[in-house]
Amino acid sequence: MCMALLRLLKSCWLPSSGRHAGSDGAGRQDGLLWYKDTGQHVNGEFSMAVVQANNLLEDQCQVESGALSFLDSGPCGTFIGVYDGHGGPETACYINDHLFNNLKRFASEQNTMSAEVLRKAYQATEDGFFSVVTAEWPVKPQIAAVGSCCLVGVIAGGTLYVANVGDSRAVLGRLVKATGEVLAVQLSAEHNVGIESVRKELQSMHPEDEQIVVLRHNVWRVKGLIQVCRSIGDVYLKKAEFNREPLYSKFRLRETFKKPILSSEPAITVQPLQPHDQFLIFASDGLWEHLSNQEAVDIVQNGPRNGSARRLVKTAMQEAAKKREMRYSDLKKIDRGVRRHFHDDITVIVIFLDSNLISRASSNRGPAASVRGGGERLSSSAYVYF
Q: Can you tell me which residues the record assigns to a coiled coil (predicted)?
């Protein structure tokens, strides 16, 4: 099991001193920044960028374009995933390795794409990670306190599906023909108890527990521990048998619980794409902490498509530096780990929408693409257990 954990960590590492690749085929690295300025997907172009702040990169992401099932007759399109881990990288890495294949499996069974396919894919991924935690518990019990937000978009047959647990966010840039403006439309529901309606929903689901949400240091947290109330992983707040020693005391609740405190049920929206829908921005909350929806849409709309995601990341970092009254150039010199005190890991994927390609999506099976954000990997000797 230790070797399995080592392999899991190997797939999650972004080194602090990357180098520029010779081409943009697999992306490039510049220190803690990984980016792919442009690529092609079934429905248009895309741009990706990831900047690391934590000791281990806890954000993971992917773009998959082409077949969305294992059947030749099955749906094709584009899959977008942003996975913002917390407590460690293991859950986000597991999602990156398994969620898309789970989706393809259920799409093959139904021979179509649907909200139900997404829901089943999330549940299968959650169940799979539970199995990892059960296996690792005797040697690495702290894995029970590792989890991840999970934001997914699927474009298939002219329809956009968005599924989310946690507080990553998907935003649509929509052209208003009468004015020529491109307005931001938020597509995903967020599950952060800093939002009053989310707090009230959680309180209504746990009426017997007056401490289900606690205000600590001016931040609302579930049981005083975590800000999101839906996630993949975080088994210690879903299965009481993992909320005990030898889990660190800071994660252990004084009282046992009879039903899961957190949920892995995704909020899902389904809508047809319109010719005036210009692009989609999928990003971890590290971006939205510094930029509003409309600010992000304006940055994409007012610049070239090439490098859109990298510009969003750069602007967020500039805002982070400004808040700390320091220069952006000085912020870039701060190494991972220490960098986390200034901003979070930030992941951004921009998906441009070509209405002509979308309109004939049922017959258009290319170009195929499979890109994961994160850059170069180090040898196994670089990994340590924590």
A: none
Query: For residue 244, what are the β-bridge partners?
Result: none
Q: What is the pLDDT of residues 290-305, one digit of tens each?
A: 999 999 999 999 999 9
Q: pLDDT higher for 181 or 328? A: 181
State pLDDT tens for residues 9-68: 444 544 333 333 334 567 898 889 999 999 999 989 999 999 999 999 999 999 999 999
CA distance 105 to 47: 27
Residues 96 and 81 sit within 8 Å (Cβ to Cβ): yes
Q: What is the pTM of this model?
A: 0.90
For the chain, give the longest Cα–Cα distance.
62
Q: Among 67, 61, 97, 95, which Cα is nearest to 81's? A: 61
pLDDT tens-place string over residues 261-291 = 999 999 999 999 999 999 999 999 999 999 9
For the chain, what are the domain ranges? Answer: 34-192+228-376
Query: Which of the four CATH numbers 3.90.226.10, 3.60.40.10, 3.30.70.100, 3.40.190.10 does domain 34-192+228-376 have?
Result: 3.60.40.10
